[in-house]
Write a structure and sequence with these properties.
The complex is a heterodimer. By secondary structure, chain A is mostly helical. Chain A has one domain. Helix content of chain A is 72%, strand content 3%. By secondary structure, chain B is mainly beta. Classes of the chains: A mainly alpha, B mainly beta.
């Protein structure tokens, strides 16, 4: 079922583009990656928007979590006030979850089409639709520049480019968090760790996987970078428009000594992560910590 | 349960991520680098490259003569070994360079064909080939010719493995070359047949056909026969390379054609067995075997034998015999593992199939009746 509905259509699409683009497998991967990215663009946009928004609300979310850790009902109420719904975090993951089958399917499709043994070719034959003239396309051209696309790149160039492009993508997509905040914010700490771990992981994969797959990783990263930059541009524009209309939202500041959070009279936008609000949250949390330590 | 403090959580998180990376890279599927077993015979013993090891088996004494290497490692062998002049020559699918190296080392081996024990390594060439050896080698005089998946035809000195010459084709070479009168004939996946000067590797002629050529060419009196992924068998003029005839099949023709008594036999992967006139390509008969065939048919006496795999899930193997006169089925035997390897004839009265099923690596059948005579399993898994 997985093969019938995900992998085989992708194999056929790859072969279709390979045929269409003059038997150039690199171009076929490139066009196919773009097509997949365009199809999943709305999901990606939604995910990135949700990620950026949640990240920017983190100081407020943390402050509420700390203050009302023993009163979940109150915590939910306060969350509602700042316009944060924890369930949205799950909704934010949904696009990623939906994309997983696509990514894994594409990965499998490239592996199968680039197969370089008689057995792998034999297994490819029944997967190809009758509308595609497989006999005219076989063997898939596996030489590109210095590389054999069905073998890892022995010059280590692709693993380095995979690492670099993915690092850049992660850096652009992950909002920066001051080191102090990371201590109190597991999500931010995790994001910062992922900035290094994911590129290292994929760079490491590229040492062992076929060069064709590394090229797919690089193309996907480049498109991801472009998409991330565009997304930031759109969000910044939205913020500017909101500010221009005076719809800045109600900021949420917690007084360390007050159990009842009061709406602030500040004009700072609610979804701003920097400036005095962050500091106030931060100082509040450290003062709370001191109090708790003293009690112990 | 006590929560981990943040000072511990961060290193713990990193540890989990690093372990995850290692696990993922270890379990991640690389490109498929396996194949069906390679089988050959010198008339009395059979030689099987079944993946991690290569073995020699004597059907007469029902004993395994030797196995190489002693212990299974990371290197895989699938190319049918060449046993000639007390030597066995074979190539591997490459030794991975390790966790942090993308380099793969492909080797060609010459082993002493001992009666028992472990064969001595006469020489190993790990420099000449850059990608796996799928094609069975061919020895002529003091030269051994090896086609590689990185598009090369290598001519090595059979005594020391010294590289005499190297020819580059347009794509991989999966089939055993053929030789006659100082000319080497090579079929490549680049859709072309090459005639090369066996002494120098110089190209004499090249003919492009209608599809990839996954198996080796077969020599006739004046013609060279070759199967094509384009769905035909072709006959070329030996001297000029000109196409003399093409016989269409129902689908891809994978196995090499078999020539006997003026008739060429070939199967397509939809399972149709064709018999055509060797001189004209005119069809004599066609028979549906009902199974997928990529092995080369084997002709002995009045029968043509075809190894195939059924379309069941999971597929089983079939070995069937057909009359060369009209294609009528004489007998058929089903085995558990799919049969993709071309069978070999041993002792004049038995036909042997090879599989990768370690519980039945080799099975011998009576040529005339199809009765199973013996089967061989690796000692560890034998029943």
């Amino acid at each position: 079922m997985w093969d019938t509905f995900i992998v085989n259509p992708m194999i056929n699409a790859l072969l279709f583009f390979y045929d269409l683009l003059g038997n150039n497998f690199i171009l076929a991967i490139a066009v196919f990656t773009v097509v997949i990215r365009v199809i999943t663009l709305p999901l990606n946009m939604r995910q990135q928007r949700s990620m950026i928004k949640t990240q920017e609300m983190q100081p407020q979310i943390q402050a509420i979590q700390k203050k009302y850790r023993d009163n979940p009902q109150k915590m939910q109420e306060e969350f509602r006030k700042i316009g944060y719904n924890p369930a949205d975090t799950l909704t934010g993951c949904l696009p990623t979850l939906i994309q997983f089958p696509i990514l894994i399917g594409l990965y499998r499709a490239i592996i199968i089409v680039l197969g370089s043994t008689p057995q792998s070719l034999f297994e490819l034959v029944p997967r190809v639709y009758s509308s595609i003239n497989l006999a005219g396309l076989i063997p898939v051209e596996n030489k590109f520049l210095w590389m054999n696309l069905s073998q890892p790149d022995t010059l280590f160039i692709l693993p380095i480019v995979v690492f670099g492009s993915m690092f850049l993508q992660q850096k652009l997509l992950t909002p920066s968090t001051p080191a102090n905040d990371q201590k109190d914010n597991p999500a931010a700490a995790m994001n910062q760790s992922m900035q290094y771990t994911m590129p290292l992981m994929f760079g490491f994969f590229s040492l062992q996987f076929p060069a064709g797959l590394s090229i797919y990783f690089i193309l996907a990263n480049v498109i991801g970078i472009a998409q991330g930059l565009y997304m930031r541009h759109v969000i910044d524009k939205e913020k500017a428009e909101l500010a221009a209309r005076g719809k800045t939202g109600t900021p949420y500041i917690i007084d360390a000594e007050d159990d009842k959070p009061a709406p602030s009279k500040s004009k700072a936008p609610a979804n701003s992560s920097g400036g005095s609000k962050s500091k106030s949250s931060s100082s509040q949390t450290s003062s709370s910590r001191k109090k708790r330590s003293a009690k112990r | 349960m006590r929560k981990l403090s943040w000072s511990l959580r961060r290193p713990a998180l990193w540890l989990v991520l690093v372990v995850g990376v290692l696990l993922l890279s270890a379990c991640g599927s690389r490109i498929t680098n396996t194949n069906w077993a390679g089988l050959s015979s010198d008339g009395s013993r059979v030689y099987l490259a079944f993946g991690p090891q290569v073995l020699a088996y004597d059907p007469e004494t029902k004993t395994q003569s030797w196995i190489y290497p002693d212990k299974q490692g990371t290197v895989q062998f699938y190319s049918a070994p060449l046993a000639q002049d007390n030597r066995v020559i074979l190539g591997d699918y490459g030794r991975p360079g390790g966790l942090f190296s993308p380099r793969v080392t492909v080797s060609i081996y010459a082993l002493e064909n001992v009666e028992s024990g472990t064969p001595r390594e006469l020489w190993i060439d790990s420099e000449s080939a850059a990608d796996k050896i799928v094609a069975p080698p061919l020895q002529v005089g003091d030269q051994v010719f090896v086609g590689t998946a990185d598009n090369h035809v290598l001519a090595l000195n059979v005594d020391d493995g010294h590289l005499n010459w190297d020819f580059t084709a347009g794509h991989a070479i999966w089939g055993q070359p053929a030789y006659r009168d100082n000319i080497l004939y090579v079929a490549s996946m680049d859709w072309s047949v090459y005639a090369l000067d066996a002494a120098t590797g110089q190209q004499i002629w090249k003919t492009r056909l209608d599809g990839a050529l996954p198996s080796g060419p077969v020599l006739g009196d004046d013609l060279l026969y070759v199967s094509s992924f384009g769905g035909s068998a072709h006959a070329l003029n030996l001297k000029s390379g000109d196409l003399v005839w093409s016989a269409p099949a129902s689908s891809v023709v994978w196995g090499a054609p078999a020539l006997a008594d003026g008739t060429v036999y070939f199967s397509d992967i939809q399972g149709d067995l064709h018999a055509v006139d060797a001189k004209t390509g005119e069809e004599k008969w066609i028979k549906a075997t009902g199974a997928r065939v990529q092995a080369t048919p084997v002709v002995v006496g009045d029968a043509v034998y075809v190894a195939s795999q059924t379309t069941d899930s999971p597929p089983a193997g079939m070995l069937s015999a057909y009359s060369i006169a009209d294609g009528n089925q004489l007998w058929s035997q089903k085995v558990q593992a799919p049969l993709a390897t071309t069978p070999v004839i041993v002792g004049g009265d038995s036909i042997v199939v090879g599989t990768q099923d370690t519980a039945a690596l080799l099975i011998g059948f009576n040529l005339a009746t199809g009765q199973e005579l013996w089967r061989y399993a690796l000692p560890e898994t034998g029943k």
